[in-house]
């Protein structure tokens, strides 16, 4: 108990340091009794639990409400931006809107064309807040290239580097239209930078991300994490695989990374029965990164479940329906086990995921608080990304067999795969990625990797049947007004 209280007090001090000044990246000379990074490093050298508590705070940021800087009911961390992205991809339809969340700003694509919209600020602030918190850990442990003698500190540094890279990667996806090496896209902040920085090029940002992940993978070798919340070596490798895949020029490396992740992460492919089991328990063998949501976390309506699950106390239960795109649903064969994830009777519940995501009590508009868990990564996505990488490396045979690994658990007959090769095989892998990972925050990444086109079905409230290329400016967020006001290096013209 005393240890937990001590960690909480130190974490509170660190979070105060972290959030005390929005214009400075790290408040290196805080006022009012706040601690400095040097003081924190000195304390951590005496008691490693201090920096461990700070690392816990990095993870907590990913699922805490308000980390996008607002009180909005769409502001609840990383999973909140999974919803943003899935809607931009067109695969997640807002099919009925009573309360207005996501309507104008996201689904009508207003925020992506107007930097004054708050949703731009939320995305920017959340991921840079994770970066900021990770930098405190990294700075406390001696910097990016440190080699801590204490094993625990070595593993914590690896986790912090991986989380910094993860957030920077998502910023590259949300804030830039494509991988243009020379295009200036984002400021880079490491543990040595305190104030606003100019934008770096895509190539420079990616080099920063990849360096973090390669170091993290080395540091995390041998780490046995206590829960699935923590990043271990396979998770860091999976993040790197997504990063390299988004460049579309390193497919053999992506294939090798995903193969190693599958072999070492301890996860299994979710069975046909498990994929209609609610996606609500981090102990699911098919998940290898996620969050155990507990009563102590205190989530309620403002949460992923509050925005997505009809069987929680939620917006879907009271008139804000989120459904699978009708065209995508129609592409699922009748004998595919995933077809059963969606409600097919006409009405307000049409094509909602009533049998994919749900509270186990199965009571419409069930009571809170939320204790159902968050999935960040699972084995199926590694299978699909591996198949994609093999196909795009010209290895059609191994790609077909990898895809068959998944499809044999979804359809009774996979012989149709035998006739697929080249572009047709790549298109099938992309389709199965969209179906399998629907509403799990991966469709937008796949859209960009595959240079796809959004074409919304008839159950969307706007832009039905309007083709939009993956690199359409309407599908990319703007640098927010607040950043332009605070950062002298960025203005409305060069954003």
UniProtKB/TrEMBL annotation:
SusD-like N-terminal domain sequence ranges: 101-242
Q: Which UniProt keywords apply?
A: Cell outer membrane, Membrane, Signal
The record places domain RagB/SusD at 348-453
Q: What is this protein called?
A: RagB/SusD family nutrient uptake outer membrane protein
Signal peptide span per the entry? 1-20
* Keyword Signal attached: yes
- Organism this protein belongs to: Winogradskyella echinorum
Q: Belongs to which family?
A: Belongs to the SusD family.
User: Where found, per UniProt?
Assistant: Cell outer membrane
Note the Pfam families from the entry: SusD-like_3, SusD_RagB
Main subcellular location of this protein, as a coarse class: membrane
Taxonomy, superkingdom? Bacteria
């Amino acid at each position: 108990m005393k240890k937990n209280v001590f960690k909480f007090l130190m974490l509170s001090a660190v979070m105060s340091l972290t959030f005390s000044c929005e214009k400075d990246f790290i408040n290196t000379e805080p006022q009012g009794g706040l601690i400095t990074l040097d003081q924190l490093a000195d304390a951590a050298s005496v008691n490693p639990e201090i920096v461990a508590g700070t690392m816990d705070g990095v993870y907590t940021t990913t699922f805490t409400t308000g980390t996008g800087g607002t009180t909005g009911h769409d502001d609840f961390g990383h999973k909140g931006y999974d919803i943003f992205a899935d809607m931009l991809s067109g695969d997640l339809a807002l099919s009925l809107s009573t309360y207005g969340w996501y309507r104008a700003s996201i689904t009508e694509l207003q925020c992506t064309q107007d930097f004054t919209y708050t949703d731009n600020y939320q995305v920017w602030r959340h991921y840079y807040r994770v970066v900021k918190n990770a930098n405190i850990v990294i700075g406390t442990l001696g910097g990016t290239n440190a080699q801590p003698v204490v094993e625990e500190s070595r593993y914590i540094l690896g986790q912090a580097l991986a989380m910094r890279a993860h957030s920077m990667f998502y910023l590259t996806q949300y804030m830039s239209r494509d991988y243009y090496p020379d295009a200036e896209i984002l400021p880079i902040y490491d543990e040595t930078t305190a104030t606003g920085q100019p934008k770096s090029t895509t190539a420079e940002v990616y080099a920063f991300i990849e360096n973090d992940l390669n170091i993290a993978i080395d540091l995390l070798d041998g780490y046995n994490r206590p829960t699935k919340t923590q990043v271990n070596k396979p998770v860091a490798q999976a993040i790197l695989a997504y990063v390299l895949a988004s460049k579309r020029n390193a497919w053999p490396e992506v294939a090798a990374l995903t193969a190693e992740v599958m072999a070492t992460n301890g996860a299994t492919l979710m069975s046909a029965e498990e994929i209609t089991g609610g996606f609500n328990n981090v102990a699911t063998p098919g998940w290898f990164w996620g969050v155990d949501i507990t009563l102590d976390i205190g989530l309620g309506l403002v949460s992923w479940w509050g925005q997505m699950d009809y069987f929680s106390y939620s917006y879907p239960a009271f008139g804000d329906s989120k459904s699978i795109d009708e065209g995508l649903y129609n592409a699922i064969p009748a004998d595919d086990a995933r077809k059963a994830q969606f409600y097919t009777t006409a009405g307000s519940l049409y094509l909602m995921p009533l049998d994919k995501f749900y509270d186990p009590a199965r009571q419409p508009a069930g009571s809170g608080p939320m204790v159902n868990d968050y999935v960040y990564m699972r084995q199926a996505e590694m299978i699909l990304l591996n198949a994609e990488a093999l196909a795009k490396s010209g290895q059609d045979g191994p790609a077909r067999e990898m895809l068959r690994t998944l499809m044999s658990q979804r359809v009774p007959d996979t012989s149709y795969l035998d006739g697929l090769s080249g572009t047709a095989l790549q298109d099938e892998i992309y389709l199965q990625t969209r179906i399998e990972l629907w509403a799990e925050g991966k469709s937008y990444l796949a859209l960009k990797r595959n240079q796809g086109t959004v074409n919304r079905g008839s159950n969307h409230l706007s832009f039905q049947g309007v083709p939009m290329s993956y690199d359409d400016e309407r599908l990319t967020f703007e640098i927010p007004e607040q950043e332009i006001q605070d950062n002298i290096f960025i203005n409305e013209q060069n954003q």
